[in-house]
Amino acid sequence: xxxxxxxxxxxxxxxxxxxxxxxxxxxxxxxxxxxxxxxxxxxxxxxxxxxxxxxxxxxxxxxxxxxxxxxxxxxxxxxxxxxxxxxxxxxxxxxxxxxxxxxxxxxxxxxxxxxxxxxxxxxxxxxxxxxxxxxxxxxxxxxxxxxxxxxxxxxxxxxxxxxxxxxxxxxxxxxxxxxxxxxxxxxxxxxxxxxxxxxxxxxxxxxxxxxxxxxxxxxxxxxxxxxxxxxxxxxxxxxxxxxxxxxxxxxxxxxxxxxxxxxxxxxxxxxxxxxxxxxxxxxxxxxxxxxxxxxxxxxxxxxxxxxxxxxxxxxxxxxxxxxxxxxxxxxxxxxxxxxxxxxxxxxxxxxxxxxxxxxxxxxxxxxxxxxxxxxxxxxxxxxxxxxxxxxxxxxxxxxxxxxxxxxxxxxxxxxxxxxxxxxxxxxxxxxxxxxxxxxxxxxxxxxxxxxxxxxxxxxxxxxxxxxxxxxxxxxxxxxxxxxxxxxxxxxxxxxxxxxxxxxxxxxxxxxxxxxxxxxxxxxxxxxxxxxxxxxxxxx
Length: 539
Fold this sequence. Notes:
The protein has about 550 residues and is α/β, with parallel strands linked by helices. The protein has 18 helices and 23 strands.
């Protein structure tokens, strides 16, 4: 029977439920268990697809085209296994399903209520991945904080589900905060006590406490938490601030979080976790032999979580190159003709990030022109690829005011056009070209050498595409389409012939980069940036 672990949060948000969930899953996976993680978010949006990145960070896209919470990125990066539509559920999706069923008459005229109809649907979704029988353990992270009004149906569903599953088949991990008061010079357990008390009022006794803290928990603190929160002392787990999120699995191993969980679930702890590859990655991450600075030019740079997968992909690629990658975030709007050289002159590589809308467009185009003309390594992602096409059209092909149809529907030269299947689309949510698509790579291209194969698949999230009416002009001038979708003939990748590294993809390669498999485009871009930095020093 599949076992279930529920992870709740208390005291404050942003304590790291996703990292704790992913770290525990990694440890269980390393012991030989088949594990997956799912996230239940309490907001009423159907998914994060229409949310501004400043609201919720990046929107992570799965293989099957689900627009999901960024925590699913952590799950995939740690476990190296893909997630799906079923791994992220919101209040909006639950209510939409129940209301649609009510309209169909599926409830036979009964009054539709939060209990049992909403909670039943939550429970059904929580158990959906377990019914296939492919997982030993399913970890369910509940978004929000215990005590929030919007979280109540999820907490109630967990209470009911634990009773239905029976003893030893589920457990609750409560992530909480043990703050340090500098004035008093001590850690305080009262916030945790109150958080657990709130959870108890809802009918749930946590089995394990994971305590975020800036200072180590001594034995007295652990005993006090155990006594007042009704848990065993070995179930009080310290989660001290770590140098990186990739240290957390080893910290949780030291605290025996995985062993405690398995014991409570009556599962074997005989196999010690095999984390040799993980430790090797950490060794490279913490002992770089080189350092390189790359710029990320985007419109949401004030919130790094808006580009979370990109920043993590650089960590993976940096470790592969035994190189520390320092990412300098540059607001696209801040770049002008007068300061572009100043902003980029000490940069060894430039990424132009994905996004929507024309804000910052001209700054991105100026940055691309600079790196193209000065032979600085360039990597464009989604809108970054489209910007590279627009810049080349304007400044090399002489297509005056060439633009994307998204930015200027009246442009004379729509070198980036609205995809045919997107014409007539009215609703914004979940209607883009989403998920994984095949790409055939041109033999002899730089991209073919990087991937080491001629057929790949990558994840997409866009409405606009390269306008093939201009393809011949571009290729004659030196910008070749080195990756094409075989079914739609969509240009997936462009690269410049006479440039050390000028590659841009319509897809999002960062979404497939993991600790175990750093994405080859990021690995090669970091290597090219490092070579550029070394060459600059020798001048």
